[in-house]
Prior knowledge:
By secondary structure, this protein is mostly beta strands. The chain has helices spanning about 5-10, 195-215, 220-225, 230-240, 285-290, and strands at about 10-15, 25, 35-40, 45-50, 55, 65, 70, 75-80, 85-90, 95-100, 105-120, 125-130, 135, 140-145, 150-160, 160-165, 170-175, 180-185, 190, 240-245, 250-255, 270-275, 275-280, 295-300, 300-305, 330-335, 340-345, 350, 360-365, 385-390.
Amino acid sequence: MKRINRMIGLLGFLFSGAVMGFPPSSAADAPAAVVGRVYHLEGDLLRYVPEERDWVAVVKDAPFGTEDTLFSGSRGMAELIAPNGAWIRVGNSTQIQFIALDTDLSEMDVAAGVARLYNKGSDMVIKATSPFGYVLADPGTVFDFYVGENSVEVAAVRGKVSFVHAATDARYDVSAGFPSILADQSQVSSGEGIVDPDWDRWNSRRESFWATKARGRGRSAEYLPSNLREEAYALEENGRWEDVSYEGEPRRFWRPTTVAVGWSPFTVGRWTDWYGDQCWIPEEPFGYVTHHYGNWVYARNYWYWAPPVVSVRVGLPFLNIGFFWNPGRVSWIHRDTYVGWVPLAPRERYYSHRNWGGPRDVVVTNINVAQININVRNYAYANHAVVVPQNDFYRVNNYRYV
């Protein structure tokens, strides 16, 4: 990894920066994209890539979103979390496609396998579809969805959910503690409602994990939006909040303390392509929330994380950074056989191929890269650019040692 001023002078602009002579479209007025996270993974999980007509491996902390189709291997199990309150756990040999992820709706199709779905949102509805019918689940409910080749079974684990039969449009309520619903192409009947003990134990272990972490959220829970408070434990375990003077104003930022001397964001992890944009996959336990929400700032010879703010609250000196997900707020540079990136300051524009909904995001399409002209030194953190050989870009998961 190189971070040398002389190198910056030689590098050319690659993609994310001021586009000269082309009409980029602003994403400022678009709703922020709801993007989920592969939080926990055991065994294999694959994502279908339509452009390649093939399945690719998915790793922990990878994103998922609308249009994604995932498949767990014969021994694969995964926990998927969306910031709108939809939690999905999938068992072995399960295929699930995300039809819609919005603030008020999570719709997914389970083609085969087993999934346990939790609605932990406040005003969001989960709709889970299958070839035999679909389930509607309100906030506070949990249910198992078993989809086989010839039938589907719905078992309520908590609360009451509704099942609508595809063939008849008849609606059935399924409540926890009562028989499950079995449906095929022509009829619906009561099931025994017996949950597979191994599947139930695995879900119980995941619930125990989260119960333990909830007790360690500390003051970080006060500073995070409600959608991210489950992540507070990672901040408590790996850093501390400090009052910092930034741009002449007192601010409260979070600083990682479990990192190496000289650490900087977007170095310990790797980049991967996701819907045309480079998406950061972190290696640090705190890396997902701090690299996909909020913004990194440099002050007092340290990197600090400024959390996203849903609404400005009197008495909490945070930067006014909205709540939105991004693949990784950097600007891209290149020269010959080198590629590099510069962390963006809070008010610098982020250019992308896809609309992620951030207030300073700009979507650029149909551009001629050869005609783009940008002075890399104009970026606030240009001296902190990370530069690596292009051949190593996708090969490593820690750019500090390249």
